[in-house]
Amino acid sequence: MTAVGRSRWVTFLLYGSLTVLGMVWLVPALSALMISTLPLSQTRAGWWNLSPADLTFGNFARAWEQGLSRYAVNSFIITGLAVALTVAAGSMAAYAYARMSFRFKATTYFLLVTTMIVPVQIILIPMLPWFRTLGLNAAGPQEYLGIALVHTAFGAGWAIFMLGAFFAQIPEDLLEAARIDGAGWFDVFRRVALPLAVPGIVSFAIIDFVFVWNDLLLALTLLDRAHQPLTVGLANLQTPHLAQEDLVSAGTIMAILPPLLLFAALNRFYVRGLFAGATKG
Amino acid sequence: MASRRTTTVAPTPPETAPPPAAGPAPRRVRSRPERFAPYIFVAPLLAVFALFYLWPALVTVLSSFFRWGLLRPWTPVDPARWRFVGLDNYTTTLTDPSFWNAALNTAVWLVVFPLLVVGFSLLVSILIWHITRGATMFRTVFILPLTISLAAAGVIWSFVYNADPQIGVLNAVLDRLGILGAHWRVGPLELHPGSWLSNPGVLHLGFADIRLTNLALIVPAFWAFTGFGVITITAGLTAVPYELVEAAKVDGANAWQTARRILIPSLRRPLIVVGVVSVIFALRTFDIVYVMTGGGPAQDTMVLALLLWQQAFAFLDTPQGGQATAIAVLMSAVLVAGSWPYLRQLMAGRSR
Questions:
Q1: Which of A17, A102, A279 sits opposite B39 (nearest CB)?
Q2: Whose CB among A144, B113, B307, B338 lies 3.0–4.6 Å from B102's, allowing a Cys bridge?
Q3: Beta carbons of A31 and B44 less than 8 Å apart
Q4: How distant is the Cα of B187 from the closest Cα of chain A, in angstroms?
């Protein structure tokens, strides 16, 4: 962009206001980061007065030993399982909704899309008895599967909406050419459509990862203590009357890092995918 | 759409041109497996959807007409234990002062949160759009909190709000300015800067006092969610030709006029998206309140999603399951009704 006739002080004003706002935006996260790397005594004296010699990773080690490791493992299992299921079932269905015609297409599409709007609360209350009926609650690894399937159901709307946008962009000629070459319907999907939709699938997988990783409500309601993820661990640690800012902040930083790193590594994909899903009709 | 673009590359006779994104184009002889293919493609997702969304949602709606508690939940397969109460759960809920308190707090969220998100992300996006160097960096700063869970955002802001000026950065700043613990009264507005999560202020409206603790919880959600607005509005801004803005400038338009007459009209769609998604987000608010205040002090920050959860899961001994499901049904009905035009638009855009 060129700035025709923009005076120097307008530029200064733009950068000045953005810098101030950006710093305000960073301070909360910075404060958690600082508290997590300082001994509690130092935190009590104001983290902004720190001297670099006080920095320590001890809080992380202690938080990890005091149970956060189990929460973290649970987070990874639940999120990995949910994202894998949603991407697998979602990309097949999204392909069908974007490129094929079948009975009840509009009706089922509408029902799936409502998952983007209707709050989770609509299914939350009968879910535990329902899990009991399906054998998904019995304290064991099947709890992971249960919550992952609920996440899959709630990701269904986003999956067909976002992934459908990518499948719809594939030129029909390419699919037709594969069909003429004798490829069966599944081969057309697996060898032609799927590879072309990889950018879309990656961005969807990242968004779904962030979404599932950050869920508190479902995990709090549906899982027993041994299977709860980091978000629940944080909520349990965060009791106002117990002075353990060191542990809580360390846990917070650990809970933030995986989605943040994933986002940073694949920033381009993420933004493009969200754009395709959010603003294109 | 995309298929139309391909016809310009390789012109095809109109009768073989595929209908945009509607299905396989030429309806030639379709082999049997090909006719079943779409059903096989949608079956796994629809099965999970039916089992873990449709059925429980149906049970929620049905069970809201019965009296039951969590210890003996309502099930559709056991008619012997049904205690049908008609609309009692709804009338009880709608005459319950704690419901209206939570509804009022949720209403504050529904108004304030979308306004903050839309306004601030519009401002930031336009500011960044005007600069060249460092645009990506600034954008990243505002987008990053979007990846932080609301539970973590709640914890982070509990540190910021900490009442002790030796720990909480906000009160440390107020302390330096010498206004920590001040009491101000401006017309109907009463402010006590410092006690953010207990009682930062009251708005005396005569018929009701609105406590501002709610606002202290809206800020962290706004902080975390603004990134969505920045992404969406920035994407919309890339479609605005910068020459148009320069032309307006040559014609003597100032920054405000340019924003109002050129940018905001061409950002209509992304702004609607951000607004609608923020409203949906605000009505679902649970995590922040659960982590930061648990609805307190004295129900001051209670919202519908948390009230429902407490009635369903926190008080095991009282048979309030029916009322909890009634709240869930009311919330969902409000959201679906409110976003109906938007849903229709989505439908029109995609599937026939």
A1: A102
A2: B307
A3: no
A4: 29
- Residues B237-278 have pLDDT tens digits of 888 877 888 888 788 877 788 888 888 888 888 898 899 889
Contact B21, A168 (CB under 8 A): yes
- Residue B87 · residue B326 · CB < 8 Å: no
Alpha-carbon span B74 to B62, nearest angstrom: 9
A183 touches chain B (CB under 8 A): no
Reduced to 3 DSSP states, what percent helix, strand and coil does chain B have, rounded to the nearest 5? 65, 5, 30
pLDDT for residue B193 is more than 90:
no
- pLDDT, one tens digit per residue, over A36-55 is 988 888 888 888 887 777 78
Task: Evaluate if pTM is beyond 0.80.
Answer: yes
CA atoms within 13 A on the CB side of B205: 7
Q: Percent of chain A at pLDDT above 70?
A: 91
Model ipTM value: 0.88
**Smallest CA–CA distance from A118 into chain B, residue:** B332
Identity (one letter) of the amino acid at B41? F
Question: Residue A173: exposed, middle, or buried by beta-carbon count in 10 A (0-12, 13-18, 19+)?
Answer: middle
Secondary structure (3-state) at A261 = helix
Note whether B246 contacts A150, CB cutoff 8 Å. Answer: no
Q: How many CB atoms lie within 10 A of CB A55?
A: 13
How far does CA B23 lie from the centroid of its chain?
A: 33
Flag if A152 and B124 touch (Cβ within 8 Å): no
Residue B76 contacts by C-beta under 8 Å, 6 or more apart in sequence?
B59, B62
> Rounded to 5 degrees, what are φ and ψ at B191?
-130, 135
CB contact under 8 A, B131 and A15: yes
Amino acid at B112: V
Minimal C-alpha gap between A181 and chain B (Å): 15
Verify whether the Cβ–Cβ distance B159 to A123 is below 8 Å: no
